[in-house]
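[Automated response] Your request has been received and processed.

Submitted sequence:
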Amino acid sequence: MTATEGLAQVSTLATNTALTVWNSASDFFIVLVLFGLFFLFAYYVGRGPFVALLLSFYSAYAFYAMFPYMSYLPTAPAMTALLAQVGLYAAFALVFYIILRRVVVSDFLYIGIFGLTILSFIGAGFLLALAYHVFPVASVYHFTPAIDLLFASKTYFLWWFSAPAVGLFFLAR
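Generated structure:
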């Protein structure tokens, strides 16, 4: 083996390793960004609106699942289809957030910082599981096998889907 061949093999190994680490880090960065957004929302806006937001995701999913005009949404470019479906879900979530925000009163609600952290992480997981199983994210972005292991299974979808409700039951007082 010449020095040039050895250098080429080392370069290939370093490039593949760097890309694998970068892909894994970028996927977990998505989880961290969602977690941070939820945590900051709950911390600055309040616990009541945070609970209303988590509950609005369930209501929005119910209406999204039974929406009779899904055939009118675009399907041609993958990104357009994804944005149309996410936009529809976000519109439903916004409507239900506004409704639930008026109902959920934060004067009698207490969630500690530890509970807030857990609920923020669970909410981020819920949205990623929803992205895996409801929206056509796979045609636009390919997650790493580590993230696939956590969110791709239908059994895990049930657990991620029920986790915010169970978390609210145990952590909100």
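Summary generated for your ticket: The first helix runs from residue 3 to 45. The chain has one domain: 25-171.
If you did not submit this request, please reply to this message.
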